[in-house]
Structures are given as structure tokens and as C-alpha cells.
């Protein structure tokens, strides 16, 4: 696995709501996920984020794990409702938590990559209209400025919003994620536009606050028609537009794809597109799978399912490493000079991991998954694509959104009864890959 460029960044990622717990401590206000998670049937196992991985109390142990893993960088997210109180007043106790966390990371030589929004909107902002409301984008920029002023001196790289597409579609159209809305497609465009506007406004605030580079983070997946039928081919093309271009075209080209314009046209104001296209320094790619798409009748005119012929993960997502190479090359080909250097900002898989009687947790399927996806990154590097780093999702098993605690993505197993952390075999494997890569530079014999 050696053969990556010498300055290639090895990282591991997590997000606030999925690991923190302590949802009522230190002045932390409810988020849309606290509310949504209490809807009967919303979460597969009825799990909540109340405790999660108890990271707010165990952060020191978790940073020690990250240091032990040997990664260069840790991608975390700040919980908006933890650091901003009602009416937008900063909450010092919440900021203190991240302050200590960043100090500890710094002392361990781990670069913090700090994302500001991983889907946990303060509930009070949702009550005022959430992402349907333009003002939420301005509130987000205010929040970014508060965090930058307090933590910016120790942040290695900023990110504003994780996966606008998932938050938009799953949270506001399909209703499977918080806030659980099922907006008619025709009314949903405001959410997409305001997320983009929030991103661009936050980029401006972060730039004004300091020199740290800024990364955009989106998910990408090739969309493949599930049959040769013309309707399925058209549905896959539409899905490709919505997932892979609806957010990326405005961010990089300053305009929406033509097919998506009717959705957003009513809410666009003069000057918005320039704000949205505020340049960033790095382009984060979250990659998990390829999506099979077929046409169906209904307001949402398509359905996504794993394409046949591939092995699947414990989540039933198709395992298609070459899809990652395809995504990286497609971005380069679509956006050319407009595309900043790429980073694989999330990759990983769900496995039904168990700790055996001897206290070991072997996850060979995850090792194979990660090895194949790292090969796919190297194929893109060999094809001349500028990829600067790779972040495994995730450090710990954690709250997997609508799947609750039923899906495990961690390099470290978490026993949710005892909060005991057990590094899986993939943890030791990744540590060894990082070490090998550092001692055998690109083009060297170990390749
Ligand atoms: C990421 O989203 C999130 O950023 C992270 O919080 C989350 O924990 C992690 O992934 C794991 O889920 O095969 O048809 O069922 C990933 C977005 C959307 C990617 C669903 C895979 C599967 C489509 N995912 N998609 S299908």
C-alpha cells in the first residue's frame, strides 16, 4: 500500500451528533436530530444521540486512539447547538469543549479538520423555518465567525457543510433524516439554495478570520440505470444531475445545471451565485458506493437500489472500488481548472463487527474494502488526478443516523453498554499502511 505521495494526508473522520452524547449538558440546546430521533419509527433501533459514544466525556481517550492510529489529521464537526445558544448568543461552555479538544489534538501532533455542519441544526432555527428560510444561511455565517474567532488559530483546515445533497434529499424530500420533511420536489429548491448560500457565506466569514485553507465536502456516486429501458436511463441521468452536479456546479461554476434551474429559480437573488461560488482550497469527496437507479411513478420519479453483480456491505451497499476512481476522474474532467485539489474526505463500510471471547475484533472485510479503495485512489493519482489525502469513516462505531446503532463503521469497536473501545484489526492494518507509506516514498520498491 505504499506509493502515495510523501505529503499525502492520512486521516480519520467523525461527526458531532454521531459520537458526542451529552446533549443537554453545558448549555447545549436541542438539534433537529434530537427531535427527529424521538419520532416513533424514525430510528431503526430506537436509538438516540443522548449518549452515543459519550465522546464529550471521553474525548481524551479518543484523541489517544487517534494518536495511536498514527494519522496526520482528524476530521471532526462542531455541534452548532452546543456552541450557539438561543437567539444566537455564543455559549462559552460549548466552545470550551472544542477548545480543549483542539489543544489536545495539537499536543499530539494531529491536525484538526473542522467542519461546521454535519446535519445537526439547532431546533430553534428549524422552528423558525430551517433551511427553507434564507436567514438561516446568514445565521450560519455568524456561527462560523464565532467558531473561527475562538478556535481558528488551531484549525488546520476548515469545512463548512458535510454532504448538502444528503441533507437536502434525505432530510427535506424523503423524510428519512432530520428534520423529516417531505416537501414536494417543486418546493424543495429553497433548501438546496440556502444550503449553498450558507456555504458561500461561511467561506467568506472563515476567510476574513484567518489563513486556514477551506474545503468543500460533498458525496459523489456514479449513477447507473438498473436496466436499458429509456425511462431508467433518463432517471439515472437525472439522479446524476441532482447528486453529483446540483451542488457542485454552483460551487465551482457559479451556475445551476439547466435541468435543476426550475427548482431553485424562485429563490435566487442578485449576487447569490457569486457568494456561492466563493473559491475554496480543497475539494472533499465522500465515497461509499455506486447507485443503481430506476424510474418509478410518483412525485419522486425514481428509486435508488444497489446495482446487481457486486458484493455488498452489511448496509447492503454495493462494493465498487473502481467507482471511486471514476468519481475522481469525472470531477477532473467535468470541472478542469476550476477544480481544487481533491481529498477523499470519507470512505469506509459497515461490517457486523463483534468482539470475540479473547477481546479481539477481527474485521477482514473492512481491511479488504479500504485496501481496494486506496488502490482506486492510487489509480486516479496514476491518471494524473491531484488527490491530497484520504480519511476513513469512521474512528469509532457511532450513531448511524436512521440506522441507529445497528451499523458499525468504526476502526474502533464501541460496546454501547460499557463504552469500552476495542481497536479492530483494521485499525492496526491502517496504522501499518501509514507507516509503510512514510518509510517507502512514491515510486520506491515497496510499491
Ligand atoms: C456519510 O453519508 C455521512 O457523512 C456520515 O455521517 C455517515 O455516517 C456515513 O456516510 C455512513 O453512512 O446503496 O442505494 O442504499 C453517506 C451517504 C447515502 C452514501 C446512501 C451511500 C447508499 C445508497 N450515503 N448511499 S444505496
Automatic annotation (TrEMBL):
Pfam families in the cross-refs: Glyco_hydro_1 (PF00232)
Q: Does the keyword Membrane apply?
A: no
InterPro entries in alphabetical order: GH, GH_1_N_CS, Glyco_hydro_1, Glyco_hydro_1_beta-glucosidase
What GO MF annotations does this protein's record show? beta-glucosidase activity
Q: Which reaction does it catalyse?
A: Hydrolysis of terminal, non-reducing beta-D-glucosyl residues with release of beta-D-glucose
- Similarity comment: Belongs to the glycosyl hydrolase 1 family.
Task: Indicate what this protein is called per its UniProt record.
Answer: Beta-glucosidase
Taxonomy-wise, where does this protein's organism fall, top ranks first?
Answer: Bacteria, Bacillati, Actinomycetota, Actinomycetes, Micromonosporales
